[in-house]
Specification:
Order of helices and strands: HHHHHHHHHHHHHEEEHHH
Structural class: mainly alpha
Number of strands: 3
Oligomer: single chain
Helix content: 55-70%
Shape: elongated
Low-confidence stretches: 1-45, 47-52, 63-76
Radius of gyration: 27 Å
Mean pLDDT: 77
Strand order of the largest sheet: 1-2-3
Distance between the termini: 75 Å
């Protein structure tokens, strides 16, 4: 059983907390030694953060103030606690990235190949920007680490293991981003995590999920284009991704799915809603409307292309790339 930190043990830790950041500059580059060094910093910091519970009990019941509690109140102020939690948080996130490096690397490879996911490079900067916008609320809050949240790593680990065995890349990537949430929720506590809910949830956009939607979006675009042409009085029908309108054959290609437009509209809507609205209902409605609005706009675009091509007898060849 571990013994609690004494006054002499707690005082040098809180004074030395800022200097511990320099440890990260000296971490070895080895893929094995790096995670072990991060893990050492992570668990050593948690050892001292656990004594923060004494400060919580002292605030609830001043009668419980002891010599150890007085020392924590004197030296363990909110700044020192934030410094200690920040060190542990950086170490915890470093461990997750090191352990799931292959999942993050495969996601970055897709970002480089797909124009629909190039916005993913902005996900982390945008998340940090929204954290910065909430700094005035955070300065009045103190982290309350809750080690029970570590158990949430079990379902994420199960998803990762299942996806890894089944060779489902998107499942592995979702599990990796889910693991990033564990240190945030565990070390910051539920109250601060609730304040930072949007920037934390925004990190899920690191997962390149759109590629699996291309085929369904192509078929949906084909059906909606047929519906639009029929509504305008043109005879049209679809066979999968092949569209026949007034005897002319059109092919719905990947670009017609407009995946980059749909995802981009979703991302912009999420950012705009959280900047302009304060009510949760308005934010949800505005964000959820982004996807159907983008799909309808894309269907209007494809319908217009076929309609203009038909009306001009092919002289305006907007659909030549799809004929």
């Amino acid at each position: 059983m571990r013994t609690p930190c004494t006054d002499s043990q707690w005082q040098p830790f809180t004074h030395a907390a800022p200097s511990l950041f320099h440890i990260f500059d000296k971490l070895p580059c080895s893929p094995v030694a790096g995670p072990h060094a991060c893990a050492g910093i992570f668990f050593c910091t948690l050892y001292c953060i656990d004594d923060y519970r004494v400060l919580q009990r002292m605030h609830r019941d001043p009668a419980q103030v002891t010599s150890r509690g007085a020392s924590i109140r004197k030296y363990g102020d909110s700044r020192a606690i934030w410094q200690a939690v920040s060190i542990a948080l950086l170490a915890g996130l470093g461990i997750v990235v090191a352990v799931f490096y292959s999942a993050f690397a495969s996601a970055v490879a897709i970002w480089n190949q797909s124009t629909a996911h190039q916005f993913s490079y902005l996900v982390i900067p945008v998340s940090l920007f929204f954290v910065w916008l909430r700094r005035h609320r955070l300065v009045h809050m103190v982290p309350a680490p809750d080690m029970r949240m570590v158990w949430l790593a079990l379902p994420c680990g199960l998803v990762w293991l299942t996806s890894h065995v089944a060779q489902i890349d998107i499942g592995v990537q979702f599990a990796a981003v889910g693991m990033l949430q564990i240190p945030l929720l565990t070390l910051l506590g539920r109250n601060i995590y609730r304040v930072l809910l949007f920037p934390c949830m925004f990190l899920w956009l690191l997962v390149p999920f759109g590629d699996s939607l291309i085929r369904p979006l192509m078929e949906l675009t084909s059906l909606m284009t047929v519906a639009g042409l029929t509504l305008l009085g043109l005879g049209a029908y679809a066979e999968g991704t092949v569209l026949i309108a007034e005897g002319v054959r059109y092919l719905i290609v990947e670009e017609c799915a407009a995946l980059d437009f749909i995802i981009g509209n979703l991302v912009i809507s999420l950012v705009y809603a959280n900047l302009m609205y304060t009510g949760a209902t308005k934010r949800w409605l505005y964000s959820l409307a982004a996807v159907p609005v983008a799909i309808l706009a894309n269907a209007f675009r494809t319908t217009s292309i076929v309609l203009v091509t038909h009306a001009s007898d092919g002289q305006i060849g907007l659909a030549y790339d799809h004929a």
